[in-house]
Amino acid sequence: MKAFIMAAGAGTRLIRVSQNQPKCLLNMGGRPLVTRMLDLLEARGITDVTVITGFQADLVRKEVGARARLVHNPFYHVTNSIASLWFARDRLEGDALFANADLFFEPALLDPLLHSPRERLMLCDTTRIADADYRFTLLGDRLVGYGKDIPIEQTSAEYVGMAKVAAAFMPAFRQRLEAMIDAQQAGCWWEDVLYSFIPEGRHVWTHDVKGTFWGEVDYVEDYDRIVAWVNAHRKAGEPPCPRAVELLGPDSAPGAAPLAVS
What we know:
Layout: E1 2-7, H1 15-18, E2 27-28, E3 31-32, H2 33-43, E4 48-53, H3 57-64, E5 69-72, H4 81-86, E6 96-100, E7 103-105, H5 111-115, E8 120-125, E9 135-139, E10 142-147, E11 157-165, H6 170-182, H7 191-195, E12 205-208, E13 214-216, H8 220-233, H9 244-248
Parallel strand pairs: 1-4, 1-6, 4-5, 8-12
Antiparallel strand pairs: 2-3, 6-11, 7-13, 8-11, 9-10, 9-11
């Protein structure tokens, strides 16, 4: 299986914590997120990895080194992740795993993607409803609704930020990706390629990862939740990971001005 790590975004909502670096270079548990992900993939036997860069690409390239192929989206500031994946389209063959580079997760999160027979599979968490960012509506384990604006009463789970496309479906996936770019849909997420098959009756399936820790670093609160987990599980003698307030100073404490940048 191949893996594609989406690392092009600027992460402006967390720019003060990341100190103007890509979020995938945030240090979590002694390693940058992207390095940790490469380590976890390698431990599961996945060494054919493509990292797609954009913002501060040189920094990501320096961290990744020769551990992965690097593909650059020079238009990252005016496009979305579908365009990033389009730049790596020649690599889209065989079984493939796709992950956002700002993900922190326990290793077991990879297993359903590696072992499921489903041709189109997305990970979700049914315990994350009230504060869900990108929301799924499910019928059993089939995806029937998706988006940030789904009402809480129709929300079944939160999307984790990781998915799989099997070899048998990859030609159709790549063709649809190219067609969407040709149709000037470069502002879409890469996941919109998968979603586009749902109205045609080509189902997208989900796997619930409830009970497995994961976090996508979009906001300061996400960062601190991951830090709390890392610090609770660190080995004896390892220094604690700093909370956001320790990086930013007292002005970031509750009641201070918002940290998010539009």
